[in-house]
């Protein structure tokens, strides 16, 4: 387990984002949101990513569990620049620590429904289950505009993530030198904003890898368990 020492900025090539119009809706229970904070420059991260990747073949993917890998940039300085890392992902992890949702900033860092989970280090399986019934949540893509509609009546934070799958990276330097890393559920675009019934996001024009799936989830404005979620594969 590696703890954060410093921060470096990321610069990497990107590909144009092109997505077909599509709509997803969930009128049942929210899924468990699993966030893994990881880095290609961290030698202890590949086993954690392997555990996250196993969720790809599980029953209940998207309906009971939404896995996401946020690549942080604070290990870039030790010899290998992670092209999927973003400073805002590092900041997201720091914010969770500042809100007392985790004991420190480190990789691999796990969060289950916004709370630090250290069961991985005790070789426990990733826990997940559907939450209580909630009003319907719908997400629609039209070009690079993502529209989110919730039938509930609470003031919430809406968050979205575009997820890339089946990525392989041959690492040439740093702690993972000579290894081929396998990534799934890599967050390549992300956004969050407060609201009540309707939200609209403008997606980025370029991403580090072609996304294969999307996740949208609503949380209380102070953080906590997701109130409602919707996720699925992109066309």
Overview of the molecule:
It contains two helices and 18 strands. It has helices at 45-53, 87-98; strands at residues 2-3, 15-16, 22-26, 32-38, 65-71, 106-107, 109-112, 115-116, 137-142, 145-150, 156-164, 167-170, 180-183, 186-195, 198-202, 206-207, 213-220, 228-233. The strands form six sheets. The protein has a four-stranded antiparallel sheet with strand order 3-9-10-15, with no helix packed on it. Strands 5-4-7-8 form a four-stranded mixed sheet, sandwiched between helices. The chain has a four-stranded antiparallel sheet with strand order 14-11-17-18, with no helix packed on it. It is mainly beta and 235 residues long. Mean pLDDT is 93; it is low at 5-12. It is 9% helix and 39% strand.
What is the first-to-last residue Cα distance?
37 Å
- How helix-rich are the residues, as a percent range? under 10%
Individual helix count: 2
Lateral strand order in the biggest sheet:
3-9-10-15
Q: What is the 3D shape?
A: globular
Rg (CA only): 17 Å
What is the overall pLDDT average? 93
Portion in beta strands:
35-45%
């Amino acid at each position: 387990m590696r703890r954060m020492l410093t921060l470096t900025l990321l610069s990497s090539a990107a590909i144009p984002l092109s997505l077909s119009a599509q709509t997803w809706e969930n009128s049942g229970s929210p899924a468990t949101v699993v966030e893994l904070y990881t880095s290609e420059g961290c030698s202890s991260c590949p086993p954690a990513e392997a555990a996250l990747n196993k969720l790809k073949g599980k029953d209940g993917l998207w309906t009971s569990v939404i896995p996401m890998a946020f690549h942080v940039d604070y290990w870039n300085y030790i010899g290998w620049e992670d092209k999927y890392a973003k400073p805002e992902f590092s900041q997201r992890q720091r914010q969770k620590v500042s809100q007392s949702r985790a004991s420190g900033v480190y990789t691999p860092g796990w969060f289950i429904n916004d709370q630090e989970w250290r069961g991985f280090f005790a070789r426990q399986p990733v826990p997940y289950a559907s939450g209580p019934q909630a009003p319907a949540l719908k997400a629609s893509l039209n070009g690079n505009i993502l529209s989110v509609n919730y039938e509930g009546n609470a003031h919430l934070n809406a968050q979205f993530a575009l997820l890339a799958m089946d990525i392989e990276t041959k690492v040439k330097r740093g702690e993972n030198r000579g290894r081929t890393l396998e990534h799934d559920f890599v967050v390549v675009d992300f956004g969050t904003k407060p609201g009540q019934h309707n939200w609209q996001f403008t997606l980025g024009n370029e991403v580090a890898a072609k996304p294969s799936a999307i996740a949208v989830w609503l949380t209380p404005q102070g953080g906590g368990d997701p109130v409602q979620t919707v996720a699925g594969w992109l066309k």
